[in-house]
Amino acid sequence: MPPPLDHPSLNLQLWTQPFFVLQLQRDEEIPSSIIELLKGGPSQFLSVTRTHEETSLVGEYHDWMPQNFKEKSTWSCIKIMGPMEHNLTGILAAFSLPLKLAEIPIFALSTWNTDYVLVPSVMAKEAVNALKEDGWAFV
């Protein structure tokens, strides 16, 4: 299924730096390095989502981070350029379908402006090819 709209905000961008995805148990403390970033450290992608079951940490990996972050930095990020209006529907569904058909797992995150989809780094080239074949444009 091609992109639902022909609009520059739906162009894609593959980020080159590695991304980590970590899960903390319900009562596990968020590492101090992450807390410092949330307080206003270097500008980078970082997502902290806490539920009653667990805490998920997702972000760009940097060499100064703890070893367990390096071990989990096996993802590449594809950004939908955005910003997107909140009344758009089906964007993430249309985006993820060619990846599903290519059997590429995803980890998706949404912000106010747009969506970010992580794919295993070893499959990033395959993901880009599947999306291009489906009509998505990379910038």
TrEMBL record:
Residue ranges occupied by any CASTOR ACT domain in the UniProt entry: 73-133
GO biological process: amino acid metabolic process; carboxylic acid biosynthetic process
Pfam families named among the record's database cross-references: ACT_7
PANTHER family: CASTOR ACT DOMAIN-CONTAINING PROTEIN, CHROMOSOME 1, WHOLE GENOME SHOTGUN SEQUENCE
Full protein name: CASTOR ACT domain-containing protein
The species this protein was found in: Amanita muscaria (strain Koide BX008)
